[in-house]
Amino acid sequence: MERSHPAREIEIKLRVPNAAQARRKLRQSGFRISRPRVFESNLIYDTPDLALRRTGTLLRVRKAGRIFKLTYKGPDAGGRHKSREELEVEISHGKLLMAILERLGFAQVFRYEKFRTEFEQPRTRGTVTLDETPIGFFIELEGAPRWIDRTARLLGFGANDYILKSYGGLYLEFGKTHPRAPRDMVFKSSKPASRRAARPSAGPPLE
Fold it and tell me: What is the pLDDT of residues 17-32, one digit of tens each?
């Protein structure tokens, strides 16, 4: 079964000290879990010369539980919130999808992992996710700009706390102070990425 949706993704990240505090703050603000905690493995694909990265676009294969999704993201439009076109489709055969991408000349250039829990508030259209990553804990707010600003204030954050960088960009920053960090943003127990993955000299793509 395939599902797809064209949309403009508008979002920000907020750094939080730990998952327990974030969950407590979300509950106190009226949010409830809409999708339980799940492990995600994300593979970023690009051409050998990183043509997608140079244009600010993204091609990603995500495995969350047993579900695979192929996602395209366009360049960021700029502004106080991260805003870009997002096209996403659910795929029934993830391994076959990855084989097709490789046949077309794409290669895995970056991998990042996280545990994600999704929250929602009754009668609102925005989505809140809590991400537990190898480099820290983040709340993501995705929705209309006014909803994002209002929800951030409700959670005790201001515009100065907004993070617009992707996990690829955040991992580049992390690597500057952690020179022994692995090439991919993965948990210590994870297996190495495919040997066929490309090795970009400038670090992970800025998703």
Answer: 999 999 999 999 999 9
Task: Considering only residues 4 and 87, tell me which one the structure prediction assigns the higher pLDDT.
Answer: 87
Nearest to 48 by CA among 132, 107, 128: 107
Q: Output the CA torsion 42→141→10→116 (10° steps).
A: 10
**SS (HEC) of the chain:** CCCEEEEEEEEEEEEECCHHHHHHHHHHCCCEEEEEEEEEEEEEEECCCCHHHHCCCEEEEEEECCEEEEEEECCCCCCCCEEEEEEEEEECCHHHHHHHHHHCCCEEEEEEEEEEEEEECCCCCCEEEEEEECCEEEEEEECCHHHHHHHHHHCCCCHHHCECCCHHHHHHHHHHHCCCCCCCECCCCCCCCCCCCCCCCCCCCCC
Residue-wise pLDDT for 76-93, tens only, equals: 999 999 999 999 999 999
Reference 170, options 142, 141, 135; nearest CA is 135
**CATH code assigned to 7-177:** 2.40.320.10
Confidence of residue 7 (pLDDT cuts 50, 70, 90): confident
Q: Is the pTM of this model over 0.85?
A: yes
Answer whether 94's CB lies under 8 Å from 63's CB: yes
